Amino acid sequence: PVPKWALITIAVAVVVLLLLFLICIIRCCCRKKKPKKKERVSLQTVGNSTMANLVPWSPVPILLHLVTLCIAPFKLKVGVKQAAELKAMDSGGTSDPYVIVYLTSDMKKRYETKVYRKTLNPVFNEYFTFQVPQAEVPDSTLVMQIFDFNRFAKHDIIGEVRLPLATVNLQHVIEQWSDLVAARKEEQLGEICFSLRYVPSTSKLTVLILEAKKLKRMDSHGLSDPFVKVHLILNRKKWKKKKTSVKKNTLSPYFNEAFVFEVPFNQIQNVDVVISVWDHDKVTKNEPIGKLFLGCRATGKQLRHWSDMLSNPRRPLAQWHSLQPPDVVDKALGLKSHLKLPLPHR
Ligand SMILES: [Ca+2]
Ligand SMILES: [Ca+2]
């Protein structure tokens, strides 16, 4: 017979050994999960950060760090970590870099890092938090612009990184190097307000063009002469079209013109409504100012407006929308190039 104290000692020893074994396993696992730093990752691979491809050395990269803090409301923490081998903008062969960070869904909210004097390899390690309505996340792009500070002259832009949030897997922490590219000018094309109403029993789709504001100025001596075209696209082909009257010399026209289209209930899912604002010109051809489309293929605010219309039959629903560059919208719609040509003015 084994004494009781011996049994207890053996039991304690076994438990201690098991605990040690468990600690070892946990340590090994954690070590593997630590993200590798300083990998140079191309933007295309962002969608799947675990499968990031290594790309050849690039001359001016910047290291970013993204963390989704909260899903609803969507909160994103953006870390500007460091930049390497920046272009020298000052005569001494150095730059004084700082970074401006914003999301295109709210361009008024901009953050700035401190200025780092006389360096081409600044280490910023600064973090900024953004909050975005959930519906606007797919359409939003994170923009980081690096500038060279100058005390007595205009600050020069060194380059920028644009990261459409729709291309990023926001459920993972992302830490990656991105290449800087030449900065693009942010263009405000304007906003348009219209209401949508669908009555399934009568197959009537009503688009009421209400007004527009902050439209881009298109005429060199004057403002713009806006009018609105409403196109219906069925199965990627232009189907029906209507247009408003022209409002002369204004950037905030008021239309209040309604268009009724007959769309059978079994086709409503296959229809895109394209709304474009044009500048009328007497001498030269009319020019598009901006565009947007609604339908089951749309995203963000436009998709929400469309689905609200479908789930509230017979009720007109009005909403403001931002105009997008016409070529971007045409690309999203996958229209053939010949359909992009402006129609002759009557
Ligand atoms: Ca400078
Ligand atoms: Ca004009």
From TrEMBL:
PANTHER family on file: SYNAPTOTAGMIN, SYNAPTOTAGMIN-8
UniProt cofactor(s): Ca(2+)
Annotated source species: Athene cunicularia (Burrowing owl)
Primary location: membrane
This protein's name: Synaptotagmin 8
Entry annotated with the keyword Transmembrane: yes
C2 domain ranges (all copies): 56-178, 188-321
One example GO MF annotation: clathrin binding
Family annotation (PROSITE patterns): C2
InterPro entries in UniProt: C2_dom, C2_domain_sf, Synaptotagmin
Spans through the membrane: 6-30
SUPFAM superfamilies: C2 domain (Calcium/lipid-binding domain, CaLB)
Domain of life: Eukaryota
Keywords in alphabetical order: Calcium, Cytoplasmic vesicle, Membrane, Metal-binding, Repeat, Synapse, Transmembrane, Transmembrane helix
GO biological process terms on file: calcium ion-regulated exocytosis of neurotransmitter; synaptic vesicle endocytosis
Family to which the UniProt record says this protein belongs: Belongs to the synaptotagmin family.
Pfam families, per the entry: C2 (PF00168)
One annotated Gene Ontology cellular component of this protein: dense core granule
Topology class, membrane: Single-pass membrane protein
Subcellular location: Cytoplasmic vesicle, Secretory vesicle, Synaptic vesicle membrane
